[in-house]
Design a protein that fits this description.
The chain is an alpha+beta fold and 136 residues long. The chain has one domain. Strands 2-3-4-5-6-7-8-9 form an eight-stranded antiparallel β-barrel.
Length: 136
């Protein structure tokens, strides 16, 4: 095996043994942290919620909405106008929406945030979840 460059191939020798393990460790340490390992934070007050959403649009596939401090919700859902109202009850975001010719009754959600993603979980945290991206 050639110690530096191999004269016939003009390449470095293959990495083996301890050098291989060191290279693998170095590569593993440079990989970005997955989203699941980032801090997930529960939003528990109306004030914290409003600080978070501010003037942002909440978006997900087929839906964009604005949650306003006056208790109104406006936006678009699947090509139709979306309207609704919201309030804060205990530690839950509660909303009632109308879009696509259907009314969706009041439902209270837990709200968690990770980076710029807001997760709303219905039925006081026991139901299905929807992820919205905060767009400023």
């Amino acid at each position: 095996m050639c110690p530096n460059m191999c004269p016939k191939t003009n390449r470095l020798p293959p990495v083996t043994g301890a050098a291989s393990a060191s290279l693998a460790l170095a590569l593993a340490l440079t990989v970005a942290t997955p989203a699941e390992a980032q801090e997930l934070r529960r939003v528990e007050t109306r004030s914290d919620f409003l600080d978070l959403v501010g003037e942002a649009s909440l978006t997900r596939l087929g839906m964009t909405l604005q949650v306003r401090p006056d208790g109104s919700i406006t936006g678009r859902a699947y090509g139709t106008r979306l309207r609704g109202s919201w309030d804060w009850s205990d530690t839950y975001f509660c909303s009632a929406l109308t879009y696509g010719g259907r009314s969706h009754p009041r439902n209270c959600h837990t709200v968690t945030v990770i980076s710029q993603t807001l997760r709303m979980t219905g039925d006081e945290g026991q139901g299905g979840s929807s992820d919205f991206w905060l767009r400023r």
